[in-house]
Amino acid sequence: MIVAKEMTAPISSVAAEAGQSSEMNSAASITQTPPAGKENLQELTKQLRAMQRKNDPDRLQTFTMEDLYETVYPPRPPIIDGLLYPGTYIFAGAPKVGKSFLMEQLAYHVSTGLPLWEFPVRQGTVLYLALEDTESRLQARMYRMFGVDTTPNLCFATKAGTITAHLENQIRNFFREHPDTRLVIIDTLQIVRDDDGNISYALDYDVMLKLMQMLPDSNSVCLLLVHHTRKLEAGDKIDMIGGTHGLTGAVDGSFVLYKEKRTSNLAVLEVSGRDQQEQRLYLVRDSQRLSWELDHAETELWKEPPDPVLDAVAAVVSPEHPKWVGTPTELAQTICMELKPNALSTKLNVNAGRLLREHGVQYWNKRTHNGRQITLMVETQRDDV
Question: Per the confidence metrics, is the pTM higher than 0.85?
Fold first, then answer.
């Protein structure tokens, strides 16, 4: 699909960092009032022809490298920095290994915004479908883990529909009622599958696609599916996840929780995903609170080195001066760095997510009748651009 070059950086619809879809921006770009002149008529004709090609099923919807660099894509800020990102994930482990306790920790920390272990958390509403629990068991467990520190942003359900009956509407209605939702946990995947027990790559992949389609287009929500592992050992623990590679191949990442000895209070959490570094975390179970604590990580998280250009751009705005609007040329002059305007614009298009994540600065780049216009805004500002 061709993404319109006029697409701007996002203003959230479900969460603070989420943005409008490419399709919405594509439609909006053509309805803008064009300046008079032959060149604009030609540009409008070009856009209309592009739309016709887009609707032709016999044509591949290609885009060029220039298209990629000129487009600002919605950023995907993590739910838990370095650990959990928007998208669909599988969380697998053997029965009674402590998966649900860790799910409840994740749910509580995301709903409150409290850091989990050493990882910063972005707060939002959480929906936890605890389909193997009762309300009384959840009450006793949550009280033992977190005491009287409750939160209205953590919602539970012990019953839900299946993929082919009601679940999609139930989740979509929850999103409408709770637009700040960041995390949905389904515990367990098997309960909502409602299939006939047949196992195949195609069936597993189709299940994942149907679940992923339930997520909003905001790029801000994580769907976490609790699943089981096989009894057979594997060199790569991700290969222990039950089912075919249709499950793990379709999702954005996987977690596997396992113990060397079932009676031990020590466990290992293997993390693998498209948007994060692979990790191995060594956990210890708190016998009194039943929660998992981080003992140590096998490797430190890799961090991108500082970028002087992004630092300089971020310094253009501040809480006292939260908004800046100008051309790429004016921005290049403002930051006083030897960088051509086109190169600066491309760099910011590609790094809009990092600018938001590391500096809290939102970035827009759109075409106007006077040329390109860049807008920088401190993240807490919500006025129209």
Answer: no
